[in-house]
Each structure stands twice: as structure tokens, then as C-alpha cells.
């Protein structure tokens, strides 16, 4: 492994070039080690950088220019920590100070570091069950538009899926690092867009909620939150014992390392089978983990009923609920009416709390989509809405619209073709190039 830059002078010994090595997960990668003295630096300070190769599913090389940045960030308790973001440009792109930056938060939804974007997106990565590897087919559309992209490991070194605030800190500090990284050619006033879906929508929510106080200098022009969870407690209770009961188990496996009250429940109330189950969930990607717990409620793994345990976890649930701080940027929320994973009541609540606190939120509810289909179907409207914010196009007053499908808007079709073209190029490992053209107004009539 070669460390190509180290701001504070603690480089690891160089071996073979990074491109020649099969990557190792972050827990075994010297690049991720915190250099001595890092805590003295301000959040977003780049501590170390390197070039990396990306590949679809770790196999098909991608025609992009990619670096990883290790930077100083902040954890849940306000303590200094290191974090990593993967920053991207279209292959061969020249530095351009007017280029916008997309902060994309992936639906990592896992404890294992094999699902961290910094690992899962790399050539040679082995990340079974990773959602991030599938999302790459969609994120590539931003590069096709000529944007720069930052994809932070927003769950941190412990895989704290579901934790409050710190995903926002890591995402925002990743943006700070990207803006300071000279090879990206960006400026301190670069326009920043924020996007994420499901678990990534939750992390994106934290980013825009924390930004007004934590990173007010960032020029965030808009955010799109897809099915952004809203109230995690409500989601966990609805999923418990059903088709997606693995999600509550993954969250318990993640947050036991963050919240002492949950660690106490694990220590005192979990059966031996329950402990083994959490350990197994912690080692798997979500797509691999979910089938193992279909129809198995948490009560099967507890010495006493879950209903008796929940009251001692209320402070945890209050902490991780979204929507209690007002984003300063315009926000588009897109969600399925019939979401089988995240009930629409929770999203309605998050939108309502944002609006009550003064945020400008445009809300689109899709009748025909479900949780997994809406991500690709909403990608064109999401990126086009962000493109309009980048271009400074005016917005009408915030609205709530319930539509049959975001795919039915005629202005949406050209962008759908562009998305299919980008996916084909990703799959074939071709350059993500496109002719210069005016962005489509696909959001017109839906969210503008």
C-alpha cells in the first residue's frame, strides 16, 4: 500500500502500488489508522490521501478518477476521530472551480466494514450483501453529468448504523476535505448537493440537520432524501418479526457499541442464541443478513418480552429520531406510499417536524412504487432537482404531492434513458461521458 499524501507527517511505509494490491477491509488497512496529533487539527483537515481504483462489484474496472481522503472528524460524543471519504471525478476531467460537488450517503445498513464504501467500491473488494455496490450504478449518473462526488464512510470505524448526528459530521467533514483537496480543483464556495436513499437518506438527513451549526460555511444548495426513515423506533417495531426483521437486529448489533443503555440490554437480556445472532448480523452485509431472520421476532432472543425492555431505551430512540433540527437548504423528500420497509407515517412525521421548524420541504409521495423500486425510479428526478438548485433556478412554494409514479412524468423519460445509458457504461466499464446539454426539468410538475 502506498500513501500518496500525509498532511501531518505520519505516512505508513509504502509497499507495492495501491492498484496492485487486493484491498483489505478498513479494520486491517494501515491507511485508516489515526496519525498521532490528528485531534489538534480542525474538522475536515486532510490527514492522508491515496489514489484508488474502483470496480463494479469489485470486478469491472470503472473509468473514473478516484482518491480516498483520511480526515479529522467528530463522533457522537463530540470527540475527535478519523473518517474516510472516497472522492471522484469523471475520468480525464480537468480541474474546474465551477464544478458542483455531490455528497452521496450510501445505504450501508451494516456493521461490517466490508460494506463501507471505501472498501466495497474498490477493485478487488469482496463485499457480499453490500447495497453500496448496487447503488454505484445510480451514483455514476452524477459523474456522467460532470459533477464531483464525495462518498463518506458515514457509519464510522465501528459501523454505527442508526446512530444520531455522527453520520452528518462525517459526511460534512468529508465535503470539507474534498473542497480542500487540490487535485479535485474545487473551491471553498463550491456548490454542494446532498443525496441519499433509505439508510443513506437517514445519513443525509443528519448531514443537513447538523450543517447549520456544525458546518455553516458550506454552500449546500439542496438535498434529496429518499425514504429517509423518519422515526427509527417506529420502523424497528413495524419490522420486528416480519419479512425484514433482520434490520432491527442489524441496528441492535450496531448501536450496542454506541449507546450504553442498549449495551446493558444486550448484556442482561439477550439469550446465548441472541448474542450469537447479533454477532452474526454484525459480520454480514444487509442483503446477506436479511434472509436469515425472516419471521423471527426479537422476543425469541430475549429473556423477557421486548415490550418490557423498550421503556429503558426511550432516550436512545429519542436521540435517533430525525426531524428535530431545521435544515437551512431546500429539501426534496421522495417516498413510496406503500413502503414495506419504512412506513410512510414516519416520513410524514419527519417532513412535518422540518416544516414546523421553518424548513422549506417539497414532498413527493409515490403510490405505485415500493421501497426498492423507488430508488432507481427516483434517481432522475433527484439529480435533476439538485441540478436545478445548482443552477439557481427559482422554486415555487413548498408542496406535498401524491402521484401515481414519478416515472410517469413525460419530462422524466429523457433522464431515465440517461440513467440506463450510465448503467450500461458502468456494467461494461466504459467512460462515463456525455455531450454537453441543458439539464432536463424532470422535477417540473412534481416538486418545483
UniProtKB/TrEMBL annotation:
Transmembrane segments: none annotated. Residues 1-28 are annotated as: Disordered. InterPro entries: AB_hydrolase_fold, Lipase_secreted. It comes from the Bacteria. This is Lipase. It comes from Nocardia acididurans.
